[in-house]
Specification:
348 residues, NAD, Rossmann fold, single chain, 45% helix, alpha/beta, globular, NAD(P)-bd_dom_sf, oxidoreductase, 12 helices, binds nicotinamide-adenine-dinucleotide
Length: 348
């Protein structure tokens, strides 16, 4: 199995952008190391049928930068990186493709740790792990990170509710979960158990039917998300869902979800704040999965994982208090915290 790695020009402020190719095994992937200032870069591998290379580069670079922020805020001793594999995860993925991807990761010699993201399961990661020491989120080890992500988002959503509505009690609260995948479905189950009035959407009908019958959820069409009268919006599909237009249409007072890069543009955090919508930064609230993965990288026990997960909600609470006192958006407070951490380490 031979994988070719080609260094592409990394965007300013990024350490490395690599194209990994193994045509015989159908592998074409990008691996981006945004920052290794706080430790080796860590972040999941996504498989997606991108329309073109520019779209994939945009995705992997934004995601890698998000991982630097996420890992810093969760205090994991890890930098930020991400990988994307070109292709449809439902039809194009093969064990050999994942093995070739593992080989590419191994070639990076521990500067990048990979795990699952959209389109990649623990079973897929196991094939990659046959060829690299730097694949985690494996069954029998830390396992699927998604339930940890969902639990972290749920806890933060409660904290956010306390801040916005004056109570963490979710009984009767109208919450829309967009995307019922690994994280979204688990989050929807927790919300249903907590008594929320659930509205759900997905582009795949099977997941919706289950949520309707089992969780009593109301279904809306994927393109009708911003027509719904809701109190909390939980984006758990793909990024870029909050744009200048959709922010104007959003009826929710709180946004808290698992999707990475929910804001199409960072400046929208201010726009949301001005519209009276509290946006909990995605990279702060969705760190449960990487915390789980980090426990495997660092060889830490379950207690460590739980302690870090609990710390996310405490951090969100602190962030919201500081933001309110300073009259700033929570995202501005979080971004500033990350900048301080990175510049402190660089100076050291
Ligand atoms: P997944 O692939 O299991 O689920 C995504 C779901 O969203 C799928 O059911 C898909 O059909 C649906 N979807 C896609 N486009 C949609 C649209 N336009 N409208 C409605 N539904 C749509 O992925 P996941 O692991 O659940 O991750 C969800 C999001 O959370 C991603 O953005 C991912 O990067 C992020 N995230 C995941 C983890 C994790 O632990 N899995 C950790 C951090 C962040």
């Amino acid at each position: 199995m031979s994988v070719t790695l080609t260094d592409l020009t990394a965007p300013e402020g990024y350490e490395r952008l690599v194209l990994a190719e193994a045509p015989r095994h159908g592998l074409r992937a990008l691996i981006c190391l945004h920052s290794t200032v706080l430790g080796p870069a860590a972040g999941g591998c996504r498989m997606w049928a991108y329309d073109n290379d520019d779209q994939a580069i945009h995705d992997v670079t934004r995601l890698a930068r998000g991982m630097t922020h996420k890992n810093a805020m969760a205090d994991l001793g890890l930098g930020g990186g991400k990988a994307v594999i070109f292709g449809d995860a439902r039809t194009d993925k093969t064990p050999d493709m994942m093995r070739a991807f593992g080989e590419a990761v191994e070639t990076l010699a521990g500067t990048y740790w990979t795990a699952e993201d959209v389109g990649i399961s623990p079973a897929d990661m196991a094939f990659a792990a046959e060829r690299t020491r730097f694949a985690v989120g494996l069954s029998g080890a830390s396992g699927d990170p998604s339930p940890w992500t969902a639990e972290g988002v749920f806890r933060c959503l409660r904290v956010g509710s306390g801040h916005v509505f004056g109570t963490e009690d979710l009984t009767g609260r109208r919450v829309l979960v967009q995307g019922l995948g690994h994280v979204g479905l688990s989050l929807a189950e927790k919300l249903a158990k907590a008594g929320a009035r659930l509205i759900v959407t997905d582009i795949h009908a099977a997941a919706l039917k289950d949520a309707m019958t089992r969780l009593g959820a109301v279904v809306c069409a994927p393109d009708a998300v911003f027509d719904q009268q809701i109190e909390i919006f939980a984006p758990c599909a793909l990024g870029g869902i909050l744009t200048e237009r959709t922010v104007g249409e959003l009826s929710a007072s709180l946004v808290c979800g698992a999707a990475n890069n929910q804001l199409a543009d960072d400046a929208l955090a201010l726009r949301l704040e001005a519209a009276g919508i509290t946006y909990l930064p995605d990279y702060v609230v969705n760190a449960g999965g990487i915390i789980s993965v980090a426990s495997e990288i660092h060889g830490k026990p379950d207690a460590w994982r739980l302690e870090r997960l609990t710390a996310i909600a405490a951090r969100v609470s602190q962030m919201l208090t500081t933001a309110r006192e300073a009259g700033q958006a929570p995202a501005a407070i979080a971004d500033e915290m990350v900048r301080t951490m990175l510049s402190g380490r660089r100076a050291a």
